[in-house]
Amino acid sequence: MCGIAGLAGADAVRHQTTVAAMGLAQHHRGPDGTRHLVSVDGRAVLSMNTLLIVDTAADPGPYRDPASGVVLTFNGEIYNYGQVAAAWGIPLEPGETDAHLVLRAWAKLGPGCLAGLDGMFALAAYDPREGRLFLARDRLGEKPLYWRLDGGRLAFASEVTTLTGYGTAPLVVRPEMLSIETPTGADTPFQGIQLLPPAGLLAFDVATGSLVQRTWWSLEGLEPWQGDYETALARFSTLLADRVPMRAPGSDFALLLSGGLDSSVLAYLMRPQVCVTVRYPGQDRLDESATAAVVARDIGAELVVIEPTVQDFTRSLPEIMRALDYPMGNASTFSEHMAYRAVAERGIRVVVGGLGPDEFLMGYVRHALVLFGPGAVLGAGLDAYRPLASKLTGSTGEPLGPAEAIVKLILRGQDPDGRLRELVADALHRADGDLARGLTLADLATAWRPLVMTSDKLASAFALERRSPYLARDLVEFAYRLPVEHKIADPAAGKRILRDAAKALGLPREVWGSRDKLGFASPVPSWLSGPLEPWATAQISSALDQAPRGLHPLLAGGLKPGGRFDRTRMQALMAAAWFADHTLAAAA
Asked: Which annotated residues bind L-glutamine (predicted)?
């Protein structure tokens, strides 16, 4: 988990001090060294915050290829870099890492090298032979990368706040912040600053100031899997056994072990030294720690149990919002923050989590509601989800179409300009009639961004590298290709093929036989309507008095009474904390 920043333009060499300050602004992402490097033609200055994982004795970046003059700053891990180096005939000296492989591959192949890389990354490469700066991001956006164009220069960084420090960026409340709590696509809540999309490639010509963007990888176009279920299960199990352990570092690492299916499979395949779980006393509905204890005991790992309190939440909220840069709609944010803190306190640098199967293998109850209908889901024993299912019960009693059903299930506020509906309709169109694929693409266009971004940002605040093994390219592509019946055959038990793989691996029945998904959920919404109600109201009201008009609907919603699972107040509170922190930063 490193950090990158930089500037490209005709006079970039004159702005070394600016780039150095940008690097220092995100030094927590790489405590092993923050340096910057000027290209041989003086038209690019790149900075890198280095966190050494692969080789703790390696030189910190950025890196320059002497023969071509290509300069690289790199954030992430390339898990297959040894195989790629051998296949492409790229020599690596002792002590050199995946970043050196990317540097030489870029000098040799340019952006064409991206297709061969299996990993998570955000990078910037400047090639003086072409006079172009390239920005690139991994397939699923595990590593963030923001950019802005100003005065003929392009600036970029791993964190939005680094770029707001580079120049003014007025707040802009995007419509999706009212509907699903966070911007979508390339937008951010800061005018002029954009997020490079997952699998995005940007080329900036420093001489002309022109830029071109394209996508270098996509799920669309993959042929559906044609084999039977037994063959698919064998193939999936082989991919799991091969790709997941590849993502275990050579040193000690910690696993976020909720006790659910996804993290438990990782535990048995990766054998971490430490497992971390989160529980809330008195919240039995959210407690999977007993199953986590069974898993940890089976693999011989130490289990660290975190029990966050109401006081922990009030103390942590400013830290969480500072790390996130802006509000993101992720229900497990607080639990993740507390887990990462515990991992960092133990001196561990890598933490692993189970993102991915829910989106690609129909693991959410909302998927079952769209695929089977609310009657089938409630009839399968998931009565706790009746409030969610009720969203699909129209006044006429007629079933909703897939697009309208998906929107109703993910909408948490207003959708005044229909932006959310457009995103969902586009996802279903790109899925070519396969509803399960459409649900996956809809998730990637809406709910995925806050999940993957919070994982990176909260971990990096503690100088941790977050890894998500299920996002291996082959696993993702194979899961996407599977027919819906391979993913979910029972309305109460999604991720069918992963469950059967877990069963074959010998995991306990309480893991693969579980019919409910909890993850690292928290009771924060109920706290905000209970013991923290006066405090939350005061925080939101204070922000409402000073915030721009665009934020008023979001903040005002948090002053209304909410139910046990209503996240409206949490959404408003995070927005209030973000605005307060932004105001203080601007004043400083």
From this structure: 98
pLDDT given for residue 43 in this prediction: 98
Tokens representing 239 are 């991919």
- Angstrom distances, CA of residue 57 to CA of 26, 31, 51, 80, 96: 22, 14, 11, 20, 9
In this structure, what are the phi and psi dihedrals at residue 71, rounded to the nearest 5 degrees?
-115, 135
Of 72 and 493, the one with more pLDDT: 72
Q: How large is the C-alpha radius of gyration of the chain?
A: 23
- CATH for the 229-359+449-512 domain, from 2.40.128.90, 1.20.120.140, 3.40.50.620, 3.30.70.100: 3.40.50.620
Q: Which CATH class is domain 3-215?
A: alpha beta
pLDDT of residue 515: 65
Q: What is the DSSP string of 7-39?
A: EESTTGGGGHHHHHHHHHHTGGG-TT-EEEEE-
Q: What is the DSSP string of 522-543?
A: -SHHHHHTTTTHHHHHHHHHHH
Q: Which residue in this structure is represented by tokens 């922990």?
A: 312
> 3-state class of 210 per DSSP?
coil
> CB of 377 within 8 A of CB of 365?
yes
d(CA 138, CA 489): 32
For 103, the 3-state DSSP assignment is helix
What whole-number distance in Å separates Cα of residue 202 and Cα of residue 146? Answer: 11
Q: Which residue has the tokens 């959210």?
A: 286
Tokens of 557: 């919603």
| Contact status, residue 34 vs residue 23, Cβ threshold 8 Å | yes
**Per-domain residue ranges of the chain:** 3-215, 229-359+449-512, 365-445, 524-587
Over the stretch 462-508, which tens digit does the pLDDT of each residue have? 999 999 999 999 999 999 999 999 999 999 999 999 999 999 999 99
Helix (H, G, I), strand (E, B) or coil at 244: helix
Q: Which amino acid is at 527?
A: W
**CA separation (Å) from 538 to 310, 341, 533, 569?**
16, 27, 9, 12
* Residues labelled as active-site residues: 2
Report residue 432 as tokens: 């070519």
The string of DSSP codes covering 301-369 is -EEEEE---HHHHHHHHHHHHHHHSS----TTHHHHHHHHHHHHHTT--EEE---SHHHHTT-SHHHHH
- Distance between first and last Cα of the chain: 28
Buried b / exposed e along 365-375 (16+ C-beta atoms within 10 A) = bbbbbbbbbbe
Output the pTM of the full model: 0.95
> How much is the pLDDT for 549?
83
CA distances from 216 to 135, 136, 138, 364, 418 (A): 12, 9, 9, 29, 28
pLDDT at 516 over 80: no
Annotated binding site: 98, 256
pLDDT higher than threshold 80 for residue 521: no
